[in-house]
Amino acid sequence: MKVNLLDLDLDGMAAFCERLGEKRFRSVQLFRWIHQKGARQFDEMSDLAKSLREKLPAVCHINDLSVLSRQDSVDGTIKWLFDVGGGNAVETVFIPEADRGTLCISSQAGCAVGCRFCSTGHQGFSRNLTTGEILAQLWHAEHFLRKHLSSRERVITNVVMMGMGEPLQNHAALFPALRVMLDDHGYGMSRRRVTVSTSGVVPMMDRLASECPVALAVSLHAPNDALRDSLVPLNRKYPIAELLDACLRYLPAAPRDFITFEYCMLDGVNDQIEHAQQLLDLVRTHRGKGVPCKINLIPFNPFPDSGLKCSPKPVVARFAQILVDAGVVTTVRKTRGDDIDAACGQLAGDVLDRTNASQRLARLRSETGQPIRIVHRERQA
Length: 381
Ligand code: SF4
Prior knowledge:
binds iron/sulfur cluster, 2 domains, alpha/beta
């Protein structure tokens, strides 16, 4: 079977070259051609020996994902729907802002965590994405944007693993992908500009700290175990105290001196004054010293069968004010790309409407004649 070169970090590429009888510097050349120059064909790689260029197509390929659709928002947000085979598709969203361009990437087709407020969780788990499928989202977006946007500046400055799936339940594929994002011969991104979001897979938070420490966002969503058990089922395995202990262990390795806590605002569920006060107690007094953090409040976007509603704006504002008054840095997620259903629970505080997804699914089926299951980024965290 041919090797997909998007599956390899630089060490993997070196091992691959070694198996072909090539020197290590060839792996750097290949890496740069693929990730920095966006080469799709080996005959484009002009500084590779001709004999190697001729040898490569028989043993490897650069496996881009098929684009099922691309939608451009009036606010500049771009959303891709990628086919990942087996009837599954995942979405990737680019969100431009004045001072940055953020790409939100999916790590799994579906999600096994099953958070109550997350449509992806309701859809169940299909499979882990491979390293190549995670990286292909960045590779495709990076080179598309370079080609189509006028700016000569780098357009993707930040990556957030906040698309569909729990990234740390797919750590075997995630970690090499992160290494490629950080590698100077790959995308050369700063650790501060790559964020992994987790619902609290405690052992893998420790592994992330030791193997590839990037910025960390934790989907908290509740200030006590009883409530979090009901919203984020993983809490029954790794309750809040263990999760916050893992955050404290993570901080010495982290590129930032705080953890971001994501908190989805659910009407009458977790948005009351006592919840804000419990949250403050947690982050200020855990183990006697608290957890340095920033709190990101995400207005919930309802989807059918969730049985949940978004907190009214004044309630979100009141909750935020309690945190701010206590000196905790707090933001309320803005909505982007609504006109293309690209607003993201993590990034923008808005989520895809499942009704729209069903309509799009029906349309795609009729257009492609294929059964396609859209597994889309409706996660709130
Ligand atoms: S919120 Fe995140 S961890 Fe929870 S079900 Fe959705 S994708 Fe999975």
